[in-house]
Amino acid sequence: MKGKKETRQFETEVQQLLNLIINSLYSNREIFLRELISNASDALDKLRFKSQTDPDILQEDTELKIKFDIDKTKKTLQISDNGIGMTYDEVLENIGTIAKSGTAAFVEAIEKGRQEGALAPELIGQFGVGFYSAFMVADRIVLTTRKAGTDTATRWESKGDGSYEIEEVVKEARGTTILLYLKEVENGEQDFTEEWGIRHIVKKHSDFVGYPIVMDVESEEPIPEKEQLQDSDGNPIGEKTRKVIKEETLNSMKAIWAKNKSEVSEEEYNEFYAHLSHDWNPPLTKLHLKLEGTTEYSALLYIPSKAPFDLLQPDRKHGIQLYCKRVFIMENCQELMPEYFSFIKGVVDAPDLNLNVSREILQQDRLVRNIRRNLVKKLFELLEKMEPSEYDKFYEEFGHVLKIGVHTDHENRDKIATLLRYNTLNSPDKKMSLKDYVDNMTPEQKEIFYITGDDATALINSPHLEHLKEKGYDVLLMTDPVDEWVVMGLPEYKEKKLKSAEKGEIEIEKDDTAKTSDFTSLFSFIKSKLDDKVKDVRASNRLVNSVACLSGDEADMSAYMEKIMKATGQSPTETKRILELNIKHPAIEKLKALYENNRDDASLQDYSELLFNLAVIGEGGKIENPSKFSQSIGKLMADTL
Description:
alpha+beta
């Protein structure tokens, strides 16, 4: 019996996305078939996994497969699977709407590609809208699905024209069937009702799928002599062959990770990566290994060439699928890969795992921990052996994620540190390793200097670096927010302490203590006038040309860290900073003379505030009262000119 039925409208953004998919002139339209096969394979994986703990869910239908049916007369193409299926609500969640976090980014990427004349097919898989790619070739799509273990089925239908219908229906068996009513074939376009075309696409994109992909094909077979028509003398007459329909398997089903490396072509590696990741960009590199002995497993891991759009989203899935004896266990296996390698895509097949393993068991499983340790070790070796140009491409895409490991993985901290790259004061256009930095240090330099902020140009011109520049010391320019956590997790490298250029004392050379003491009284006066803003006023050994800067004590939060916390909605405890003044600057010497001649001069208050504001501006900060600051500068100009 039929149940509820309703018609729903797509949201405006979703309809915009559909229009782009349908009309964006993708040259490689066959990708829709790969996406539908991949979805069917996922549904079979989920059913197979569930059957490990609930064998009855399969009932009599134990032969898992994906099937194509072609009807040239009706111009339809149908793809079916007997996988896990979906409920009514799951159809609404997974098929009825695609207004998820990536939709806006997808629309933006498509529009940008159209403007630049470079529409990329990888966008379809990357943004998780593979099902809708079928609208490139179909005028109408009908999806019928029944969840395993339930009696009710759901039918979803749409022409991609702004609305869809969804209703409860009857379906004899579990699984999902997608019926495509194909568009008219124009000159030069592929006809997806041709058997040879389907064979070619499956072989090219999905040969390694672990379930039979089948199709009924017509062929001829000899008619047995005893079944042939015979004349009066018993001699065969008429047709000697007959046409029959046979189910043909189109894919080899060979698990690519189980093969020897010599048996797999580069094209096969790339196609498996596309199937696994829904990313049509070829991977940057791969790691294919088999380990035998105490710990046995096979692994095929890929480093993508491009970072996904959602790389830094908290709910993003890890890319490792876990198998046991080629039986799918789970996707998004975080236990096999640390967070700083979350962009790695791949498969791990561990034959000694319990098929009924849960995430809680995985966290305690010694085998899983050993596999993780070995994989991480192999990935470090892979990165360390990369050609510099190839590694530069990797670091550009994933360096900011790799840095997370410095703070979170103490065991591998030194290995990660070796892989870090930074622009520096002396190398602003080319990133440098920490090893190269140390090798280039002058003999008298004892520390690795760094400065953090969100703009490299502003850092290069920071007053904090003036004395370091004069000495010829290089400085790491740290412009990623995560760098603040890097320096917390990496106190030293190669026995050289990492030292902030804006915090603590910079002991490049000894101060002229006698001269500094001459300014003690003036500095105490300025501190009293700025007591609500600074915790101390002292002579600077950072400055050469500038008159003032703000610094912090060694353990203080940096100005950039405070800015990051405020930008993320946090309210850090306000830390008063130190106002450093350049006692060799003429302005400070004249201010000292003015103070000694007339300590009650009202302008001393204004000059104190002016010095503080100059220090704030010098590090790219915002002053509290820009109007008053402007008036003070105007008055100074008038008095001077």
